Amino acid sequence: MTGASNHDMPPANITPKQRMEISRREMPQREASERNRDFLEVNLGLTEKMAIWEAKRCLQCKKAPCIEGCPVGIDIPGFIELITEKKFLEAAALIRRDNNLPAVTGRVCPQETQCEIRCVRCKSDTPVAIGWLERFVADYEMAHRAGRVKLQREKTGKKVACVGSGPASITCGGELAKMGYDVTIFEAFHKPGGVLVYGIPEFRLPNRIVEDEIKTLTAMGVKIETNVIIGRTLTIEQLLHDPAENFDAVFIANGAGLPTFMNIPGENLKGVYSANEYLTRANLMGAYDPDSETPILYGKYVCVIGGGNTALDAVRTSKRMGAQDSYIIYRRGREQMPARIEEVAHAEEEGIKFDFLTAPVEVLGDKEGWVKAIKCIRMELGEPDQSGRRRPVPVEGSEFIIDCDMVIVAVGVNANPLLTQATPDLKLNKWGYIETDENLQTSLSGVFAGGDIVLGAATVILAMGQGKQAAKSIDNYLKEK
Fold first, then answer.
1. In a domain, 366, yes or no
2. What is the pTM of this model?
3. 130 burial level (CB within 10 Å; 0-12, 13-18, 19+)
């Protein structure tokens, strides 16, 4: 069965030994030379036959360690077995029992470090492609659903406000709606989705996917108000105590959107972007479209500083925006990059250049104040730091210059202080993130928080896990109240 064709169907009844003989399917993807010039999705998804073959690889473990690796606790063996029975809509419904964003997480969740790494097959083989199968059933549901589920649950009469419309809020709001609460999500931007629409490019996560998931949320009765900045338009105090608002609880999940810079000379030159601003202009505001009125710079030689998924998104976006050469400058080695392995491989295929063990020390400008180059220094790895990774140490006398006309800084983000400054009684840690107890309740009664504003910059699925936990805690709080 190892060499079985994707065009042949696996037998209905199959032994564990035969399952072990099936090799992992490969996700079809667009050619790099074609895709690096546009913003169409890179991965094409599994075909129906490929999905069934891949699902047959699952050993249907009784204890299912893969579930333990999922922050939202999806019944992974359950939905995979339904795929083998061609019950694709039932598989999607089973996923949605625990995950309100399957088409999103099937694309951007780092399954390779969470559920798939727990797969029993890893001991002697490659894991079942759980993420690809999740994407398959979510996309199948999108194409074949007769309508969206409208909740019939009896209303509690209680109202909950969710601040921000990213994955934590979408999850929390959806879970609370299932419990019978009236939920309103407040979003500062003109479009809901949070980091899913402003931070992740179309070639990884098409906006139509997020829009579809948002429609599912609103069909459940969740209200979304855009262009509302909590901390300016309204305060937490007003949400809870103003008679016009009168919410019974608040969930804060406004993310961590304040860019971090390197504090090196030249960062104020024209042509230096934070990755947040660059991706927001390109993605949320549509600057990747040549007909867009959103202003954005088109660099010919672009240097992106950082080694995470945001850095990879920015550098691949710059290539698609017409850059002749796009570089990743990262102070550690390839093995230490926090970006997903798949994204690094895609970037290399698309012609992105990597300068590992390299750190910028100065951005150089011309007489008009525009970026003309970046001065760097070689690094070597020393002893491990607090993150457990070996600390990069400068190599004396190894400075060199890379000519460029644009620099994008993607070295991390901090908590945006706008909301917290307007809520002085909200307890924060030393980094400005909101402190919570084990139930995600803050120092203010009836106010809960989760996602990046609590964790710092984290993954979509970890934020969703906190949204789910917060919904349970809010439900318990309001029942006790």
1. yes
2. 0.92
3. buried
